[in-house]
Write a structure and sequence with these properties.
By secondary structure, this protein is an alpha/beta fold. Helix content is about 40%, strand content about 5%. The chain folds into 2 domains: about 270 residues, no CATH class; about 180 residues, no CATH class. The two termini are about 30 Å apart.
Length: about 575
């Protein structure tokens, strides 16, 4: 979160904690909030990497920790291991851009490096092969471009290392299923026959004698990566490192979504965007082409959920795993949409995936810079950059109480805004059922469990904590306008209103507003736990998953409170 400078910031530099506290609490101080939340930023410790989180659902969500490469008793060179209580899938990753494969004019490969040992290094690199399309046949809309088929035989040549474990088997099954799916879907969506992808190559990157995959000089060039190369019409991936790592961290869905994304680039090539991009590259920036590929991946995974394939156990929970994988591949915080290397933040990538999943392939092909909004942004100040976009927890709570309180009174005129506290009229055990933040109908207040919400703040980021609090302010607003805070509609409405409040901060010109990475933190907490969707009694829809929570959150963010409140 980004906040305007306060006198506390200026007065508390280069002084002791006790001096800082005394200055802030001095009579007439303008920096002491009414509720007493605000303290010096220097008092917040964030160095403890191991936490005990009281909520059972949170502990279950964090149960999966990364392991060693299959068949090895020691950590691989591609990820670092430690005992954690938070899944590394939610941790920010840093990427360094590698050279493009030969023959890929718009190719781009990424490799994750771990600048600090607490971050796990993982990525699936994506190679952009782009393309718009002349929609013919049954399609009525025309997307600018010169349609052309990739040069490929009717049946693709599949070269692969012998399967060495579950990840290799999943990859082989996935590419066969994707090829078959697009043979049916491509003509139905675009009125053109599908030309099979020429080559799928699973590469033994640890073998110095392995044959180099298409568009590279040696097998090791593909380490930790996957790509589509349009010049060779080939999808290639690291079978020794990347795929086992994806399988380990995300299950089969991690492997499936990476390959579905790369095949999505092959779909783009078959629709002919290359010529249009040459004529107007500003119309087809990298981030748009990556969003299209994420969208096509959503189309394919929707099909695999509806028509299961033997060997690919995909259901709603695995769909969440696929989205977690996309979150893991997000751009570093602070990368702008116009950056030549930008692939998208977590929110934008998950949004594109959901659009394809819901609306189908034509929606993906119709994406343009005019109808697609990207939420990535750079840091607005040196101070925000220095703290990585994260406010200290108590500062965050003070600002949220003030800002969300004003937002509440706009939604429920004439009603007092909820007071944010660590208690309230409701019994603690009743509040605890809602998670780190809770709404108490007895007094209309919002309570936070400081220890639990600090864990969220530390392990994910400040806006993950803010999202949970915003959801409880949303619950209070529902109650204030006459909607029961108990029942599944209440949880759905609270999730939607958390998104609506986030949209308010996204549009804020100055003052308390979103920082780079904040939307990613919201996505992560929505995927990992159902807290924001719990009603005032701590109940949630057992059939609902992160996919549905993010959908409701996006509805609120895009449509505002009117999309969440009945009759508004």
């Amino acid at each position: 979160m980004s906040a305007p400078p306060t006198r506390a910031t200026a007065e508390c530099q280069n002084v002791s904690k006790s001096t800082c506290r005394s200055r802030m609490s001095a009579p007439g101080s303008s920096v002491t909030s009414a509720s007493g939340w605000r303290t010096c930023s220097t008092t917040v410790a964030t160095t403890d990497a191991r936490t005990t989180i009281p909520d059972a659902a949170w502990r279950r969500a964090f149960a999966r920790a990364p392991g060693t490469r299959p068949g090895s008793s020691t950590p691989s060179r591609r990820h670092w291991f430690r005992t954690v209580t938070v899944p590394d899938a939610i941790r920010p990753v840093r990427v360094r851009r590698n050279r493009s494969p030969a023959g890929g004019r718009r190719a781009m490969m990424c490799r994750v490096s771990a600048p600090m040992p607490r971050w796990v290094a993982v990525v699936a690199a994506v190679v952009v092969a782009a393309v718009p399309v002349l929609l013919g046949g049954a399609c009525s809309r025309v997307v600018p471009g010169d349609a052309r088929a990739a040069t490929a035989p009717a049946t693709a040549a599949i070269s692969a290392v012998p399967p060495t474990g579950p990840a290799s088997e999943v990859a082989a099954t996935t590419v066969a299923a994707l090829q078959e799916f697009w043979r049916q879907e491509f003509p139905a969506a675009f009125g053109r026959e599908w030309t099979d992808i020429t080559t799928f190559a699973a590469v033994a990157t640890d073998d110095p004698d392995a044959t180099a995959p298409p568009c590279t000089n040696r097998a090791a060039d593909l380490a930790d990566q996957a790509f589509y190369c349009p010049a060779a019409d080939a999808v290639a991936w690291d079978a020794d490192g990347l795929m086992p790592l994806l399988q380990d961290r995300f299950g089969p869905a991690g492997v499936v979504v990476v390959l579905a994304h790369e095949v999505g680039h092959a779909v783009q090539t078959r629709l002919g965007i290359d010529a249009a991009q040459e004529r107007g590259p500003q119309r087809y920036p990298t981030i748009l082409l990556e969003a299209m590929a994420d969208c096509y991946a959503g189309v394919a995974i929707a099909h695999l959920l509806e028509e299961p394939v033997a060997g690919l156990p995909l259901g709603p929970a695995e769909r969440d795993d696929a989205m977690r994988a996309l979150v893991g591949f997000r751009d570093p915080v602070g990368v702008e949409p116009g950056d030549q290397s930008a692939h998208g933040n977590a929110f934008d990538r998950v949004s594109a995936f959901q659009d394809g999943h819901r609306d189908g392939a034509v929606r993906c092909a119709e994406m343009t810079v005019d109808n697609r909004t990207f939420t990535q942004r750079r840091f607005g100040s040196e101070a925000d950059l220095a703290r990585g976009g994260n406010l200290p927890l108590r500062d965050l709570l003070a600002f949220v109480e003030d800002d969300a309180g004003r937002w509440f009174t706009d939604l429920a005129p004439g009603r007092d805004a909820p007071r944010l506290s660590s208690g309230g009229a409701c019994p603690p055990e009743r509040l605890a059922t809602q998670g780190p933040a809770a709404y108490c109908p007895d007094d209309g207040g919002v309570a936070v469990d400081l220890a639990a919400i600090e864990d969220v703040h530390r392990e994910i980021g400040d806006f993950a904590a803010a999202t949970l609090v915003a959801g409880r302010y949303g619950m209070a607003a529902l109650d204030a306008v006459g909607t029961s805070p108990v029942g599944r509609p209440a949880g759905a409405g609270a999730t939607c209103l958390a998104g609506a409040y986030t949209g308010r901060l996204l549009e804020a010109p100055d003052g308390f507003r979103l920082s780079p990475g904040d939307l990613d933190e919201a996505v992560q907490v929505l995927l990992l736990a159902d807290w924001v969707a719990r009603d005032a009694e701590g109940a949630s829809d057992p059939a609902e998953h992160g996919f549905e929570r993010i959908t409701r959150f996006r509805t609120g963010l895009l449509d505002g409170p009117a999309g969440c409140l009945p009759g508004r």
